[in-house]
Amino acid sequence: MERRSQVIAVVEDDPSMRRSIERLLSISNLTVKVFSSAEAFLERADFDQLGCLVLDIHLPGMSGIALRSRMIETGSSLPTVFITALEDEDIEAVATRLGCVAYLHKPFSPDLLISAVNSALSARPLS
Hints:
Blueprint: E1 7-11, H1 15-27, E2 31-35, H2 38-44, E3 50-56, H3 64-73, E4 80-84, H4 89-97, E5 102-105, H5 110-123
Parallel strand pairs: 1-2, 1-3, 3-4, 4-5
């Protein structure tokens, strides 16, 4: 499987941010699937097709941190790029302990997100 054919899952509750990330990744020749919540991601994501996850930390319902923790508990090694609008060193430390590939503060540059996603895709073992 080629890395570029892997799906990048984006979990972001803000509709405009979700669309912006989807467009940016799509014009970068990446396949994107978006979800508005952690619960929607768990219900509908095809985990076998995923190359990485772009995950907002502050979501209604299950947080991004809780989702990442749950995925680790179930044996998932899906590379994750955390995104957040809040400056919180404690949460950033938790995200780092959970093995995130990158931790980006909104607003982030398009190049920074693309670089983080490419690093995450490179970290994902090929099936």
